[in-house]
Design goal:
Blueprint (H helix, E strand, L loop, with lengths): L3 H11 L12 H11 L3 E11 L7 E10 L3 E6 L5 E5 L6 E5 L4 E5 L1 H8 L2 H7 L5 H5 L2 E9 L2 E8 L2 H4 L2 E9 L5 E8 L4 E11 L16 E2 L4
Parallel strand pairs: 6-12
Antiparallel strand pairs: 1-2, 1-11, 2-3, 3-4, 4-5, 5-6, 7-8, 8-9, 9-10, 10-11
Helix pairs in contact: 1-4, 3-4
């Protein structure tokens, strides 16, 4: 997948399918799934740090994410936004906007399946609701605890994404059982950390957030 931001969006919505060894304590994962399944809506502010081998300092940006069950979401990065991704309803097209370039792209569910394999199934489902759903997308690479967070290292089962991504670490707060950070390593040596600086659960999310006019935008070709 050529677009790292879109790739991370799909990973965030896919969340975890973590089949662990019998001797591993599944409690942190199960609590996370139960908490996620109980969310009707969510609003998140995040800080993104992208590290490239060619740069001495990371590229830092901020963003916001909104979700409303069963499958409406809006993800935007940058302030003002440089990339916006919107799905109005579960199973509908994914609209990608680049406000600075005034470029847009519309991806159908068929496009998403071609680009991201089984990830599209989790995308359509919104947030994870069962361990079985998680296990379709990830296998466990290891678990640890740091700074009050359960760190769950996951490997992707999707062959397309695994060609791009080396490792993902999901950091879950041990008190709230909410995802607090994503650490993503790419096979080209780059990495992206997304830290959720503010999380609001079950807020009143306006329907207008999940629609955006394409007037004045040039449509990008799929690929």
């Amino acid at each position: 997948m050529k677009n790292p931001a879109l790739c991370l969006l799909l990973l965030f919505l896919a969340s975890l399918a973590l089949p662990l060894r019998a001797e591993t304590d599944l409690t942190p994962v199960r609590r996370w799934i139960e908490t996620s399944a109980g969310l009707k809506s969510i609003s998140v502010d995040f800080l993104q740090e992208r590290r490239l081998k060619t740069l001495n300092k990371p590229l830092v940006s901020t963003g916001r994410f909104w979700f409303k069950a069963p499958g409406s979401f809006r993800w935007q990065s940058g302030d003002p936004p440089k990339m916006i991704a919107i799905q109005k309803e579960k199973g509908k097209d994914l609209v990608i906007l680049k406000p600075v370039e005034k470029e847009a792209q519309v991806l159908t569910q068929a496009d998403l399946k071609e680009k991201a394999g089984s990830i599209s199934t989790a995308l359509e489902a919104g947030f994870p609701t069962s361990m079985e759903q998680f296990q379709k997308n990830f296998s466990i690479g290891g678990m640890s605890v740091r700074d009050g967070q359960d760190r769950i290292s996951a490997n992707l089962k999707d062959s397309n994404l695994s060609l791009v991504l080396l490792r993902i670490v999901f950091c879950v707060d041990q008190t709230t059982h909410l995802l607090k950070k994503l650490e993503v390593e790419f096979r080209d040596g780059s990495a992206i950390d997304i830290t959720f600086t503010k999380i609001e659960t079950n807020p009143d999310v306006a329907a207008s957030l999940f629609s955006e006019s394409l007037e004045g935008y040039t449509m990008e070709k799929k690929g």
